[in-house]
Specification:
This protein is mainly beta. About 0% of the residues lie in helices and about 55% in strands.
């Protein structure tokens, strides 16, 4: 979304499609209109009809509403759904083609199912202890499991003062009941930038563990679908990691911390089926990079989208890199 308007105020939604060479096919802009704001997205997915479903928040600071916007394959708006209060933090498509999303506020955490059109199917209060009226979820990631096996959800708790607490991993059934819950108590603040289902039917979770000052670290957790932790790995001086499952392992892209010797370059790490590092690639501009998205394309190559920082310290530009899957070298 645009950054040139007031915080939590009016922000336009942008959607851009690129071809395999990184050229823009089309770009769409949806102008703010709901109580001074359109959708400021937290999450977006491709749907089976070829379109896109995005979710986030809209409205003003005092009138915050959860929003879901459905767009067709050309980026045109089909409908917008609004749920009073809260913020839509994660979204997935059900086996029936409906959309399920999580909305969180200070009073409740709700799983909401809507058809692939405007209107409600189901609202499920997500009662997870030790949450009470002071706690809400943040940094939520939701992944659908194959063969109707439900969902895996990762999140952190957040108090009304904004401090992150425990790291949560949950298994949800197809009907959105909680099958099991795991809690990981990390020190300092925890942010979950990525959650993926691996080819061996394990989930891989990447979380930033803040130590304060320089020297943040990324913690990777590999957990089976029964909730058993298989291994935990730590990468020092990296934060805000994005991960992507591949046929032979996973790819990690993270922002190097200040103690790495250069101002916030992006580092990309590729592993094989035994979780061993195959190659490491580093890239960045003169003012620093911040990884936003990393994906493996159909031809096996890797697409990285990163924000490029200006002298003022924000990230107003997006830079695309296409990397060779075998070597990590940049093709463009």
């Amino acid at each position: 979304h645009s950054q040139k308007r007031t915080y939590l105020g009016a922000k336009d939604l942008f959607l851009t499609k690129f071809d395999a060479a990184g050229k823009v096919v089309w770009a769409k802009r949806h102008v703010a209109r709901l109580k001074g704001a359109s959708l400021a997205p937290y999450a977006a997915i491709r749907t089976t009809d070829g379109g896109v479903a995005a979710c986030g928040y809209g409205g003003t600071w005092k009138a915050h509403v959860a929003m879901v916007m459905k767009l067709d394959a050309s980026g045109n708006e089909q409908w917008t759904h609004v749920l009073k209060q809260g913020t839509c933090l994660a979204i997935e498509e059900t086996d029936e083609g409906h959309l399920v999303y999580l909305s969180s506020n200070k009073k409740a955490n709700l799983l909401v199912t809507i058809p692939n059109k405007e209107g409600l199917l189901k609202v499920v209060p997500l009662a997870i202890k030790p949450f009470d009226h002071r706690y809400q979820l943040s940094d939520v990631k939701l992944v659908k499991l194959p063969n109707g096996n439900g969902y895996v959800m990762a999140a952190t708790t957040r108090t009304d003062m904004g401090y992150e607490k425990d790291l949560l991993l949950l298994k949800l059934t197809k009907t959105l009941d909680v099958a099991w819950k795991k809690t990981y108590d990390f020190a300092k603040f925890d942010i979950i930038p990525s959650l993926h289902l691996l080819a061996d039917n394990h989930v891989l979770l990447a979380a930033t563990r803040r130590k304060g000052g320089s020297g943040d670290r990324v913690v990777l957790l590999k957990v089976d679908l029964g909730g058993t932790l298989k291994w935990q790995k730590t990468f020092e001086n990296i934060e805000m990691a994005k991960i992507q499952a591949t046929a032979n392992g996973f790819i990690l892209a993270g922002m190097l911390g200040k103690s790495s010797g250069k101002d916030n370059d992006v580092i990309v790490i590729s592993t094989n089926e035994t979780d061993e590092v195959q190659w490491i690639s580093r890239m960045g501009g003169p003012t620093g990079e911040y990884p936003e998205v990393i994906k493996q394309l159909k031809d096996g190559s890797i697409l990285l989208a990163s924000g490029r920082k200006t002298a003022s310290g924000d990230y107003p530009k997006v830079v695309l890199f296409k990397l060779d899957a075998a070597t990590g070298k940049s093709a463009w």
